[in-house]
Each structure stands twice: as C-alpha cells, then as structure tokens.
Amino acid sequence: MPEIKLxxxxxxxxxxxxxxxxxxxxxxxxxxxxxxxxxxxxxxIKFTCTIEAKLTKYVEMYSRNKVRYxxxxxxxxxxxxxxxxxxxxSATKKYEMGxxxxxxxxxxxxxxxxGSSLKDIxxxxxxxxxxxxxxxxxxxxxx
Length: 143
Description:
Structural class: alpha+beta
Mean pLDDT: 85
Helix content: 40-55%
Largest sheet: 5 strands, antiparallel
Low-confidence stretches: none
Distance between the termini: 49 Å
C-alpha cells in the first residue's frame, strides 16, 4: 500500500508570542481606557450636581459566617431627604457616624448617585500603562 505524505507547515511561534504580548497589552489598554473615559464622561454629563451627604448608619450583610458593613449616607436635595447605600462592603465600620462626603447626583433623578470616581481614574491609569508597556517594551522586540 502506498504511503500518503501530508504537507507540513512550519510555524514560527516565537514571533507569534512576541506579537501576542503586544496585542494583548494594546487591546486590554484600549478597553480600560475606553471604559473609564465613558464612565467619566457620563458622570460629567449626567451627574452634574454635587451635594454633601452624611453617614447615618451601616447595613450589615452576612457572608460565609462573617459580617460585612456598607455605609448608608443621607442627603437633602430640593426639600427631600434621600438615602444612598454604598456599593462597597468591608469587614469593619471604617468611618465615624456623621462623617460627610461629596456625592454627585443626577438633578433630574436625585436618587441616582455617583460617588468618587477614583475607580474610573485607576482604570484610566491602568489603560495608559498597558498601552505604554506595549509601545515601549513589546514594540522594539518585534523589530
């Protein structure tokens, strides 16, 4: 019986992996940059009113036999009082009762709240870092 020979393909995996690192950093960097810029733009456009809110209580949540706390802030806008429960949970009550913070609210719907945009700024910094890493580190390797 005659022997069948299949064609072979030589792949250079070293160039693929070098380019892969570059493209992974660029794509992730662009995703981080885009998402943070969109969130920051929405905050500037939609949440135009800055108000002072006071910590009035903590909400408790039990998870895996451990208690977690989330602060609840009260604020006053257009002759109405509103409560806002933070999305952050911690194992301790980090802040004293009565502590005030600044919140950004949507004047058309005062119950819609945005807190500090520190997370969005962190995403922006991470995105910039990844794009710079791709340009400075990976791009010279591919030449």
